[in-house]
Specification:
mainly alpha
């Protein structure tokens, strides 16, 4: 008989009810946390610094070109003092210098115009004015006074060799100008300046009643060195044309104009006979124009961009030696013991200054003229 629907199921009669066994709960064993082994930090091995290999020496062709250009600067600028001496024998001193720089400026301007086009000589008004000022100081003051010192009567004129030795103090004067603006020179530089001025005194100090150089002529050359130093000093601090060739064109134009005015004011045209000018004076003037103002200057600027500046600067103490030697050999200028001693002391002082006052810029940058000023009689 079936149970009514909805009733609980019954067990057979008399049988104890069977309770289903309950499964014991299975407790999961705790899983031990897996600790990751600490990873030891990987230290990068220090990389040894890579030292730049020293620059390879200049190829033989470039090296030969450098020494050729340096030889041109040595010989030509060292010989310009002799060229001045021969020129002023029969030509007016300042007017011949004015003609020299006018012709050189015209030739250089034409070359730049053809080489760089119509804008090759373009500068600002400020740059033009600054170049003109520097040109007057360098050429009218610096070169003009050297010309006058070599052209006077025997009682006042200096020999070409002594003029070159006195002009060699230009780097020393530039150092003094720099010191006046707060640029403190080092001990070696001060020693070089002191030695240079000791040599200057030795040249003009009377020995046996007469000095190696007449005092008037010597002071005129010293005035030239002062003017040249001022021009060199200012050219490194004023807003000048960036191209040294362009700057030189305007410097030569201004210097030539100033020399012409001074020459006319001195009356150099009075009594001047063009037919009385000697052939060797004409040749010397041509040599100064072409070799001194164009060829040697071009070689100098090229060297500044392709050779170590310390090597280029050696012209400052080689030129006086060349000048004294050529003056003695070609013009029979006396070379006394006083000249040799004073000249040696000056050259030593200049060499000491040049070797310790090297420009900080590398080759290829526009050089500071204050470091290696162009030779007073050379440009």
């Amino acid at each position: 008989m079936s149970s009514p629907p909805g009733s609980a199921p019954t067990s057979p009669a008399g049988a104890a009810p069977v309770e289903p066994e309950r499964a014991a709960p299975v407790e999961a064993e705790p899983v031990a946390p897996v600790e990751a082994d600490p990873v030891a930090p990987v230290e990068a091995e220090p990389v040894a610094p890579v030292e730049a290999e020293p620059a390879a020496p200049a190829p033989p062709a470039r090296s030969a070109l450098i020494w050729t250009a340096l030889g041109v600067v040595y010989l030509v600028w060292g010989s310009t003092y002799l060229g001045i001496r021969v020129t002023v024998e029969t030509l007016p001193p300042l007017l011949s210098a004015a003609a020299r720089f006018a012709v050189a400026a015209a030739v250089l301007a034409v070359v730049l115009r053809l080489w760089r086009g119509p804008g090759g000589l373009r500068v600002t008004r400020r740059q033009l004015g600054n170049a003109a000022l520097v040109g007057v100081l360098l050429l009218a003051g610096g070169n003009g006074l050297v010309v006058l010192a070599e052209s006077g009567p025997p009682s006042t004129a200096v020999s070409s060799g002594v003029a070159a030795l006195l002009i060699a103090i230009v780097p020393l004067l530039v150092v003094m100008l720099r010191a006046g603006t707060g640029d403190r020179p080092g001990l070696a530089t001060l020693l070089g300046v002191s030695a240079g001025f000791v040599g200057l005194v030795l040249l003009v100090l009377p020995a046996g009643g007469v000095g190696a150089a007449p005092i008037v002529g010597a002071l005129t050359v010293v005035g030239s060195a002062v003017s040249w130093s001022a021009g060199s000093f200012l050219s490194g601090r004023l807003d000048m044309p960036g191209d040294p060739f362009v700057a030189t064109v305007y410097e030569m134009v201004a210097g030539s104009a100033a020399l012409a005015v001074l020459g006319l004011a001195r009356g150099e045209t009075r009594g001047f006979d063009l037919g009385a000018v000697s052939t060797r004076s004409w040749l010397a003037l041509g040599y100064l124009t072409v070799a001194g103002s164009l060829v040697a200057f071009t070689a100098y600027v090229w060297l500044l961009h392709h050779a170590p500046i310390s090597l280029v600067a050696t012209y400052a103490y080689v030129n006086p030696v060349v000048a004294v030697t050529l003056g003695a050999l070609l013009l029979d200028e006396p070379v006394t013991g006083q000249v040799l001693l004073g000249g040696a002391v000056i050259v030593f002082g200049v060499a000491l200054v040049v070797s310790t006052e090297r420009p900080r810029s590398s080759a290829g940058a526009r050089p500071a003229r204050t470091a290696t000023p162009r030779q007073g009689g050379g440009t």
